[in-house]
Amino acid sequence: MLLEPVVPTNVRNLPVAVSLILATAAVAPLAHAADDGRFDPRALFAPLQLPDAPNAFRSGSGKPGPLFWQNRADYDLKATIDPASRTLSGEETITYSNRSPDTLDVLWLQLDQNIYRADAKARDVRAPRPPRPGQPARPWAPTPVTDGYRIAAVEVEQGGKRMPARFLVDDTRMRVDLPAALAGNGGTLKLHVRYAYTVPGTWGGRTAVTPSKNGEIYEIAQWYPRMAVYDDLRGWDTQPYLGSEFYLEYGTFDYAVTVPWNWFVAGSGELVNPKDVLTAEQQQRLQQARGSDGTVYIVKPEEIGQPSSRPTASGTKTWRFRMEHTRDVAFAASPAFVWDAARINLPDGKSALAMSVYAAEGVGPQKWDRSTEYVKGAIEHFSQWYPYPWPAAINLGGHGAGMEYPGIVFDGFDDGGKPLFWITAHELGHGWFPMIVGSNERRFAFMDEGFNTFIDVYASDAFNRGEYAPKRDGEYAPGGGNPVDEILPLLADAEAPTLMAPADSVSEKYRHPLTYFKGALGLVLLREQILGPARFDPAFRKYIATWAYKHPTPSDFFRIMESEAGEDLSWWWRGWYFNNWQLDMGVTKAEYVDGDAGHGLAVTLESRHKLVMPATLRIDLADGSHLDKRVPVEAWLQQSAPRIVVPTTQKVLHVTLDPDHTLPDADRGNNEATVAG
Fold this sequence. Notes:
- The structure is a single chain.
- The chain is 22% helix and 29% strand.
- It is α+β, with helices and mostly antiparallel strands.
- The chain folds into 3 domains: 14-67 and 468-578, no CATH class; 72-438, Immunoglobulin-like (Sandwich); 585-674, Immunoglobulin-like, CATH 2.60.40.
- It is globular.
- Mean pLDDT is 92; it is low at 2-32.
């Protein structure tokens, strides 16, 4: 997915301003904190004040507090696509529930289609995005230019009365002034909006019209005015949409899409009227797929464009979908689709449907013929962290922007082999981050892309007994080497932002290396080197289950991982997340205790940079065997050159720190030492 914007909390009064300035200076600097190469235990292990203090809404354990609340938005949506003008006309009814303790006199909505206007703020924000392999360069600013949303009417329904509402459009946001204030603690209203917009062309960023040999493919996302989030952290979160990510409320979506009779529609959630839009044979094939571990065609390649593949041969068809516990829906529509499906086996005997819809150009044994296999494998693997909650997971082969939405992802019909698996798994992994765990990806990019890339690493290892392992792509160790080596240039770059930096301040140069790669590697190191899977995995599952369909902050994540894993990780959050501190641990001396091999071996360590980590110290013995001693991070708590005593009575040849090359050590030239004496 694209970059997540982040903007600091607004400061409302002087005491708050002073406290925020002090906390930011000590904990989360927006500018890169230089690593001057000096390890100081007092700096690394000092108490860490996290940005969001515990309160009645969010507890010190990282869980929702006793007074936690979250507003809700349920949607009833109707859309009609006119292919002649490429216009989507829509009507929506939003049932908005104010569960906050606050009375609201306005509502804020996101008008994402306004990013395509000539005067959109996004056009002045970013440098051009480098092209994907085999594709022409494209500007960051969305093209072509459209007039964005054309709002025909906004009405508010309160207390049994429906009346026009005053509204103000500002860039990609709309404020609706309420005729009567909406009470807190459960007050509800309905908001009715009629609108239309021109669907952007071949490159529309997240939404597009893509030509294929059998007809155009409409990839439709951010296609309705969406409620902004009102939360306990800052009230209305009204970041302008700059081409990046979203922060949305959860609810139930019922939506209907009307298209020409010969089109198929694939959408988030469950198709609730298959008898109206599918032939009897297609309905039977779909039912067969629900019980099949192998891929079953719903629409075969040779059936594309055949009138017999449709229930009727004139007019329009309305496809109806429903999705619960979601923050968004998207769909694709075209007369050019191949469609296949298979069963996803979920925990506790449950199941869902893996589906692929794609152009005929994608047909091939190492191309989209395997897409549903990839969808099935990825979802089944990811469900070990938290069971997939929705009835279907769809991979759409269209333009190839690589974009994710609940229940459906948009990929490229030209992809195949490893790239197709990796992009499919990555985009589907976003079902967990941020579609299930609804972190604010507009502000904290690593909780979206980094967390998702982390679970992708293990999905690559697991699929078909490692067919596409290890994961080495543009998201993770793009050079194909050892990730702990490939991350070193970023850590050494004095201009690089930190993981906690506002996402909109992260340039394209650093977006993938920082947000995806460093964000994922931080969790890999936490799991494999710091906590171990036995402690990490239950804690991470607890985090997902606790914050499913809610809005956690980085502070919530840090706290719940510490609480559930039973470990103070302040030093790790400080070094890896709030700063780009480097690691360069080494051995300065290895000698027998009292000069006698029978008394054991003493090894003195050093750190030439600010960060240290738990590490393995390997003792190679004269008889050809070796001893491994785990040096905990606590060895560095009180001293900058800890002396480690290894109880051995045998002759030692040499010692090696981190012999398996698992740590991001800036200089491995000092990791070995020959025993003196």
